[in-house]
Amino acid sequence: MGTKILLISEGSTFMVDAIVKNLNEGGFDVIKCAPLIKELKEHEDEAEIFLIYLGDYVETRSEDMVYLKDICIEKEKIINVIGDKMELDELKKSVPEGLITNYFSRPLDIKTMLSVMQEVAQNTEMLGKKKSILLVDDDATFLKMVKDWLSDSYRVTIVSSGMQAITYIAKNTPDLILLDYEMPITTGPQVLEMIRSESATSTIPVIFLTGKDDKESVTKVLALKPEGYILKNTGKKKLLEQIANFFETRKARVF
């Protein structure tokens, strides 16, 4: 079975059928999906690579496109887009340009598109061999910064609330969770308690992210028995060292 691609398009056209045919011949397994929340929910976990064939629907489907954006951020899906400039500009009102890996303009050069998608598949396979980290924090700026720091070495998924984290690990098992200690509504300690209470998730390692380094605060953090803690004002180099040391230590325990 080849690499799976979720082809998102409104209905079948001659060009869509030609794209499917060429992708199949190029070694891909194509799953077709309409640009609707209901169908996206049904198929969102079936492929890592999304290929969106744009059309007039983009103007009237902003809610569906926002949902698509949320999937791709939370689950690290790779977005590739086919369309004209006006359609792309409309899409970017809901899906930030930074999330779009490749853009293919119409009229479409199918051979070029296929070659690029094969390269994307190879990169995705390499990415799949990296350790996975779930980063949980309600500060969007901090999330983006730390994700940028970690993404060269790890597969990083970001969520902005405790309940989003619980929803994520119900279907996924990250190698490590970096969890903000102080969050509104569902706090870091409450998330950890829920993780530890379920047999399916109880062994997932958790390292707290905390902004306080006084003795009393650190004692409270460690009393919950996480795998450790990292100060939120830690710089990039030290943060990477701490996480690398964590994985090296766990690897040594296996042997």
Average pLDDT level: 88
Examine the coordinates and then state which fold CATH places here, giving the name of the CATH topology of the largest domain: Rossmann fold
Query: How far apart, in Å, are the first and last alpha carbons?
Result: 34 Å
Q: Quick one: CATH class of the largest domain?
A: Alpha Beta
Give the CATH architecture of the largest domain.
3-Layer(aba) Sandwich
Percent of residues in β-strands: 15-25%
Note the overall shape: elongated
Element-level helix/strand string: EHEHEHEHEHEHEHEHEHEH
Strand order across the largest sheet: 2-1-3-4-5
Architecture overview:
The structure is a single chain. This protein is an alpha/beta fold and 255 residues long. It is built from ten helices and ten strands. The chain is elongated and about 65 Å long. Helix 7 (162-169) packs parallel to helix 8. It has two domains: 3-127, Rossmann fold (3-Layer(aba) Sandwich); 130-254, Response regulator (Rossmann fold). Strand 4 (78-83), helix 4 (85-91) and strand 5 form a beta-alpha-beta unit. The mean pLDDT is 88. Helix content is 45%, strand content 21%.
